[in-house]
Write a structure and sequence with these properties.
Length: about 220
Amino acid sequence: MGALLILAAASGAVAVVLALRLWFVLHSRIVVPRKSVSLMVVAGSGGHTTEMLRLLGHLSSAYCPRHYVVADTDEFSAQKIHSFERNRADRDPSTMMPTYHIHRIPRSREVQQSWLSTVFTTLRSAWLSFPLTYRVKPDLVLCNGPGTCVPICASALLLGLLGIKKVIIVYVESICRVEHLSLSGTLLRPFCDYFLVQWPTLKAKHPSSVFLGRVV
């Protein structure tokens, strides 16, 4: 079709619908057709990273290069990403050059950190996020709730406000969020191009969100 190459064959009707909707968002906002989409993925410790990698497993190689952003103390996510990408390369021997990079920024909030001190650590994280986002200039930011995604998404929005580049932000609320949005989701929902929830209770409370059933 001369437009973006997006999701390869994915299992299940939900994944197919997600593919079509993501194509629409990308095609309607990226003016110049291209063969690849520069993707910035925000990974979080534990379940966030696991859910994100499941979702990425449905994305085709057209989403490259893939830039993963992890907290500087999050070795678990870095190891999971390396493993995921190695398995991906094994399934696609034609991939000769690495198509992913891992970037580290300070964590916005540590577990049990006081909310007052979180303000300062988040500002520090945002201060270091903008140079990274400016250097990468991704077409799409994909995140699912870790605190690290807040400064990254703010930086992506700033690129658009400064007229440097319009970056599409897609937020997928974690499957564990059944009744209430996460703090990250609450903060970012008004600014996302595409906000997905995985439970009908959240869709009922937030009509502007998109409910596609379970996507991870």
